[in-house]
Design brief:
A hairpin with a 2-residue loop joins strand 5 and strand 6. This protein has 2 domains: 12-171 and 220-262, no CATH class; 176-217, no CATH class. Helix 6 (103-129) packs parallel to helix 8. The strands form 4 sheets. A two-stranded antiparallel sheet has the order 1-8. The protein has a two-stranded antiparallel ribbon with strand order 2-7. It has a two-stranded antiparallel ribbon with strand order 3-4. The chain has helices at 12-17, 21-42, 46-68, 75-94, 97-100, 103-129, 139-168, 220-247, and strands at 71-72, 176-178, 181-183, 195-197, 204-205, 208-209, 215-217, 261-262. It is mainly alpha-helical. The two termini are 23 Å apart. The longest helix has 30 residues, at 139-168. The chain contains 8 helices and 8 strands. 21% of the residues are buried. Keywords: Membrane, Transmembrane, Transmembrane helix. The chain crosses the membrane at residues 21-42, 48-65, 77-98, 110-128, 140-160, 227-245. InterPro entries: YjdF-like. It holds the Pfam family DUF2238.
Length: 272
């Protein structure tokens, strides 16, 4: 394992010379968010001000983990996490990319499945490398645990979205327009017979047409789609992680860029 040493502050020139991409990305994204924050304050848009502050706090989490623990986060993984936060909070929420680009939410949930699997994978891999524990999980069990961890995170997030919608009247679980519905609730005989209505072109609510060109599915399709793409992201990472642990081959070595590792327990003394 690597020798642990508390990260030191670097100047911008040092980061460029040393090609410290994680810190460069961190500072550049933080600068962009701070500029956006100032603009939102001037515009008195305090909801967006809160989102900017939340984004800055989330940006600091990877650095805090590395500074206060013996966990080393690879630059590639840290950069993806930072871009993920920026894409979700600033572009998705503030710039309304979730509505403007239908694929935006799908892409982020896929990335979330991948990242959560990487975190779950690393947690088990760190335990496997720790000499204090007498057990060692096989590569297939590490992959299964990582997959289950990722899917659990995805489900918890959907619980959060549902709670925000029900309790605070938000619309985190985006609606979907469909032209066909099937339900036993439409069966007048109450005998569990499925009744289908196809080719729906318009829906009237309280005498007013919604003008959507179909029936409005409230959140269910969006939730299941999010869980499905989370599943895809988790499976992709877990398969790659399995082959990496199983064979430790150069072909799967790229996966190391996404797996946090445990450094040596004794800090390295700074002789300077």
């Amino acid at each position: 394992m690597k020798k642990w040493k508390r990260p030191v502050k670097k100047t911008l020139k040092q980061m460029i010379v040393q090609r410290d991409s994680a810190r460069l990305v961190h500072y550049l994204l933080r600068l962009v968010v701070i500029l956006i924050l100032i603009a939102q304050v001037l515009n008195k848009n305090y909801e967006n001000v809160f989102l900017c502050i939340l984004t800055l706090m989330l940006f600091a989490v990877p650095s805090l983990i590395e500074t206060n623990t013996r966990i080393d986060i690879p630059d590639t993984l840290e950069n993806i996490i930072l871009f993920f936060i920026f894409s979700a909070e600033i572009l998705g929420e503030m710039r309304s990319y979730y509505v403007t680009y239908p694929f935006w939410d799908t892409a982020l949930h896929t990335a979330n499945g991948f990242l959560a699997a990487a975190i779950g994978f690393s947690l088990v891999d760190i335990l496997n490398q720790n000499e204090r524990f007498s057990f060692r999980l096989s590569p297939i069990f590490v992959a299964i645990v990582a997959f289950c961890f990722s899917m659990t995170i995805g489900v918890i997030w959907e619980f959060f979205e549902f709670t925000m919608d029900m309790v605070f009247g938000m619309d985190m679980q985006k609606d979907t327009v469909v032209t066909t519905i099937r339900s036993v609730m439409l069966d007048p005989t109450k005998s569990q017979k499925i009744v289908a209505i196809k080719g729906i072109e318009e829906v009237v609510v309280n005498g007013k047409e919604l003008g959507l060109g179909g029936y409005l599915d409230i959140g269910l399709i969006d939730t299941m789609k999010d869980l499905f793409v989370n599943f895809i992201g988790a499976v992709v990472f877990c398969i790659a992680g399995y082959f990496y642990l199983k064979y430790r081959s150069k072909k799967a070595a790229f996966i190391k860029r996404f797996i946090p590792t445990l450094t040596d327990e004794k800090p390295e003394k700074d002789e300077s």
